[in-house]
Amino acid sequence: MTLQTDSRTGRGYHGEILHVDLSSGRTEFESLSDDFYRRWLGGLGLGVKVLWDRIQPGADPLGPGNVLGFVTGLLTDTGTLFSGRFMVVGKSPLTGGWGDSNCGGYFSPFLKKCGLDGLFFHGASESPVYVFLDGERVEVHEASDLWGLDAVETDRALKARHGRSAQVACIGPAGEKQCRFAGILTDGGRYAGRSGLGAVMGSKHLKAVVVAGRKKAGLADREEMGRLTRAFRRRIEGGRGMRRLLGDRLLGFMGWLTRKNPIYTRQPADLFRQVLGKYGTAGLTALSAESGDSPIRNWGGVGHLDFPLKRSQKIGAEAVIRYEVKKYGCYSCPVKCGGLVKVPDGPWPIEEMHKPEYETVCGFGGLLLNDDLHSIFKLNDLVNRGGLDSISCAGVVAFAIECFENGLLTLEDTGGLELGWGRAEAVIGLVEMIIERRGLGDVLAEGVRLAAEKIGRGSERFAVHCGGVEAPMHDPKFDPGFAPIYHCDPTPGRHTTASYTYLDLQLLEKRYSRAPKIPGLTTFKQRHTYENTGPALAACSAFKMLIDGLGLCLFGVSVGGDMPIAGWVNAATGWDLTDEDCLTAGERIMALRQAFNAREGLEPVRDFKPHGRIYGRPALEKGPARHVTIDIETMAGSYCEALGWDPRTGRPTRDGLERLGLSDVAEVLYPAG
């Protein structure tokens, strides 16, 4: 059919979204008011409001009643930096509640250039399809010839079919088979990985979305937008160089220092930018293992004992970039933390793939006691092509290894695979089984929570997760700011929402009155004092919701330069929002995400509490986090209270919702009478 959008020029957004019913093939355009965008921005805010209105409570995440959305940010394609992110939203098959996932690449601007701020899929097709749109037409194509192809092959096939300007978001075989932690690939290796939304896409028989738009949304003040962007670029490019701070000697010294006498310093944004630019996100892999930041041996080990520096450096920054052949940056990114690698040597040669990220290297590295870099490259390629979230996949494999080690799984269960710590070939075989949902892989594709229920025999003690979501590669015992987020975020186990590290890098207390600086986090005792930590972390969370509504990158707001967020918003839209107004929009987005869970009967304090190993129950006996058990109840209560949620349940309160102008939502959660 032909697209007939009514774009509003001079506002930064189009004011139009598209609904596609895959059951019937019908399409519906929906116009959104200017007031809608002032309240919800775009991106995640747009997504959560539409899904709150459109998904019926109790809908099966893998049934036709779920709605899958692709949403662009308010600032995407407006000339701002770091604004190439898009969000995928839907009901999560891992938690049964709210699900979202953030991704970069080039898909977002080309979707927005179709004259749309969001695209939502309802129902389910009887046979495989893909959807193409270019701003002039929307077409639903048969995709039986693509079903069964891996995600990278699908991306290449559709770009060849529709031209180089086309951008693709697609699933691999794991998504087709509805593995509950399947993700969605774009640009050959960027992933919307968390929340299992690739499985939702597979349940709808939607193999791919192809976008090739050319429409601009227009700006209210193009001159001011250009001035702000040029000034911000000068600030981030004018930082003092710290490129030599990651040498082996200093790394070894810092590792010794942090494990013998833990000290902490405010994170320098300039250094973070230099690390990202040279090494990418895996730049601190070895130091993270040594300091206790990344979990070891399924969260039961200690880095400098079980995976010491001489091993972790084999998969560290310098080792990885030795294979890098080209830098990669997402749309509108001046840092270019990504890269393409070629692996000509070793047992698993690879012609080209996206460089593995920190979470992938740590997950298939220290979490499994695996220091074989070639196997990690192979595993990265496997999950990219198969279409899996590498965090969850590594967590599932670690769970299986520990079950095997303790006699809860046998060689008969594993199909003859001799699972064990550091046994790379067996891990590769197991991941292939998960992608194919073959044998034990069929059980593990359900995620560790459901897999433990099926295996039984006490295996749940090895199933490390947060409310059904496998835990990421940052240990709250190192940075306690992660603890209440893993516990209480509407998408539990989310490592990108808030932490002490982000508070350090983003300097939010200088911009927002609601972001008090937590005083004195430089000593072990100060970082492990748990009272009154909620207000700062709540502001950090609201800030993340803000940037997810605008389509901005978490790294972009963490590399220094004091990003002119409110200025950019006003230059794009013609509004007069203050920094505090923007943060309130972020709070509103966070509240509705949590209200979605409450409407489903989920309470994070009860339902999302992390596995004990994550917060130190039982406590480790050695290492930087020895004898640490985080008072997660106190931190969660303080955090919920600061967000206007009931500290006993995590449910948004009536007063908290009404303060944010969400009286209609309050009536749903607290009906009169």
Describe it:
With 673 residues, this protein is an alpha+beta fold. It has three domains: 16-211, Aldehyde Ferredoxin Oxidoreductase,  A, domain 1; 263-470, Aldehyde Ferredoxin Oxidoreductase Protein, subunit A, domain 2, CATH 1.10.569.10; 480-669, Aldehyde Ferredoxin Oxidoreductase Protein, subunit A, domain 3 (Orthogonal Bundle), CATH 1.10.599.10. The chain has 31 helices and 17 strands. The protein has a six-stranded mixed beta sheet. It has a six-stranded mixed beta sheet with strand order 8-7-12-9-10-11. A three-stranded antiparallel beta sheet has the order 13-14-15.
List keywords for this structure.
alpha+beta; Aldehyde Ferredoxin Oxidoreductase Protein, subunit A, domain 2; 31 helices; 3 domains; 673 residues; six-stranded mixed beta sheet; globular
Q: What would you say about this model in short?
A:
With 673 residues, this protein is of the alpha+beta class.
- CATH architect. name of the largest domain: Orthogonal Bundle
Name the strands of the widest sheet in spatial order.
Answer: 2-1-6-3-4-5
Backbone shape:
globular
Domains, number: 3
Spatial extent as radius of gyration: 23 Å
Number of helices: 31
Beta-strand residue percentage = 5-15%
CATH class of the largest domain: Mainly Alpha
Q: What average pLDDT do the residues reach?
A: 93
Portion in helices: 40-55%
Give the tally of β-strands. Answer: 17
Question: Alpha-carbon distance between the termini?
Answer: 47 Å
CATH topology of the largest domain: Aldehyde Ferredoxin Oxidoreductase Protein, subunit A, domain 2
> Would you tell me the structural class of the helices and strands?
alpha+beta
CATH homologous superfamily designation of the largest domain:
Aldehyde Ferredoxin Oxidoreductase Protein, subunit A, domain 2
Largest sheet: 6 strands, mixed
Which regions contain 5 or more consecutive residues with pLDDT less than 50? Answer: 1-8, 240-257
